[in-house]
Amino acid sequence: MPAYDQLLGYPEFELDPHQTFASNPVYLIARDAKDSLTPNETQRNTLIAAGVYIVVIAILWHVPYISFIIYPFKLLTVGFHEMSHALVGVLTCAKIHSIELDPDEGGATRMSGGIPWLTLPAGYLGSSLIGAALITCGFNTNASKVATIALAAFFLVTLWWARRNWITWVLILGMSGLIILFWFVAQSVALRYLVLFIGVMSCLYVLWDIVDDTISRKVNGSDASSFAKICGCCPSQVWGVLWLLEAFAFFAGGILVGLVAFKQSAAQQKEDTSHFLPVPGTNHNA
């Protein structure tokens, strides 16, 4: 048989008698991946909280009179959307004139210059990426603290471009107060769940927005419609489906990265957070 294999040009394989299945590299990689993605108790609680958030958001979204509870978080996601346009515009040498939010959950980023085929999809994908990053940080208390510091910088830049828009001021000041309040609750454990909620809300809003603007109905003024006019090769629905798949990938990626990166138990997180930007008055020795 070896001579026949050589005749046909196939390489000759020999099994290593000392190699067992448990030492096979493919098995080791699969085992490590399984261990990394298997949630511990703290991570399971985080996943349960995220699932509850999805259900609650879906209910509040369609129930009159109580939907106002998530209204500020919707506006915050719109802010993520517009800020993503602006940031990519800056990176492509555009001049940002203003960012505006309106009470009807709409927004606009006025800029000149830049590269439209990068700035247009940046709204949906950027806000989805921000949401995924917040979901990842929602698995760890210290990471959530870092996330809120990044949000503070994000808020300051947004206020500079939206300084004449009173809705943006009210939204950012309200969110800043909420973040500070949750920072002081249960040694910032409440902050972790707030960051997780904002991340889930952002990702869900992006998914709904893409479907509503580009797939279920065609909005002529949407980012996808403008992008389709520039490219000229595909209708806006096609770009909407592609962006929807990317947004789903970001959502799932945020959860997977959180499972792999933050394996600390609740007790370990409590100990770590007492040494990193602790709540004033916390007893470190305890």
UniProtKB/TrEMBL annotation:
Biological source species: Somion occarium
Keyword Oxidoreductase set for record: no
Keywords assigned by UniProt, alphabetized: Membrane, Transmembrane, Transmembrane helix
Claim: Transmembrane is one of the keywords in the record: yes
Protein name (record): Peptidase M50B-like-domain-containing protein
Membrane-spanning segments: 47-73, 115-139, 146-162, 168-186, 193-211, 242-262
Signal peptide: none
